[in-house]
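Q: What changes when iron/sulfur cluster is included in the input?
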Amino acid sequence: MTVTTATRETSQQAARTDVAAAPMDLRHDWSRDEIKALFELPLMDLLFRAQTVHRQYFDPNRIQMSTLLSIKTGACPEDCKYCPQSGHYNTGLKKEKLLEVEKVVTQAKAALDSGASRFCMGAAWKNPSEKDFPYVLEMVRQVRGLGLETCMTLGALTPEQAKELAEAGLDYYNHNLDTSPEYYGEIISTRTYQGRLDTLSHVREAGMKVCSGGIVGMGETAADRVGLLQQLANMPMHPDSVPINNLVKVKGTPLADVADLDPFDFVRTIAVARILMPASYVRLSAGRQEMNEQTQALCFMAGANSIFYGEKLLTTPLPEESQDLALFRKLGLQPEGVCKDRAERAQQALYYSAS
Ligand code: SF4
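A: The predicted holo structure follows.
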């Protein structure tokens, strides 16, 4: 991204003024021009501003750790061009039926033992079927019974399904917007952007927390990254969890040969997400395997405070657990316990602003 001298001077002034202003207000009316101006700040100013906001809502040295298990793998009827699980592409992925409840619970216990506070379960479905849904509900009940937070990603939900999941004890539901509304049609043709927003509304109405983010490095423009973050930040309530994924290119998918995103543009995306949604967990998600330690550290500096931890991110590999812990040690980071809710974070924000 090019930063002109004039842009730099204006941006620096804006950054200083804004940091001095009360950054605790959550806004839902960001214009694209405002978001673009944040992306175009000199990197050091952007990082400073993101880190300043981050410290008002979170302990900067704690990282929330989630573990993700694929409970049903492959043969998905959707055509998401980045996804090795789509039945439209031949990626050599081994397809699996819905896992048995006992197997899921065994994996959840292992995740708990290795320090995860949240257990995410993902199924490659358009939407959960009537036949499978009771098993899914039982997984939620049993995993929650272990003391873990629960999250699921099962595709589109009806309002009734959202209600049943909430009643079973599901804490979070993940449904990503993926990209900007303008670029969306280049990536997926089998479900609509509006359908995704509808599912997220059902999740909110049922009283669950929303996990929603996107993927960058899919050949989108800088304006598309602005558009994605605007959609997320201008929801009536910010998603509680915002995964920012860097495309993992998988052979056999249509995006296998797309050009790499500059790592600094990835870091900028994290920083802008942090500024726009200061009370949300921003998750450094897929693509971490390909990042060196220094880039990961910059992402934490930019306000990422959640990672997926464990062997696999659905079907693409994650850094070894021990590598993660070694990096945490080097950076003085610590895993967070079960996620705080908004009220607790608001109290923490008051504490930090008063001290
Ligand atoms: S991203 Fe989800 S919905 Fe899209 S193809 Fe993959 S599993 Fe299916």
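Observations recorded in class: Residues 5-20 form the longest helix (16 residues).
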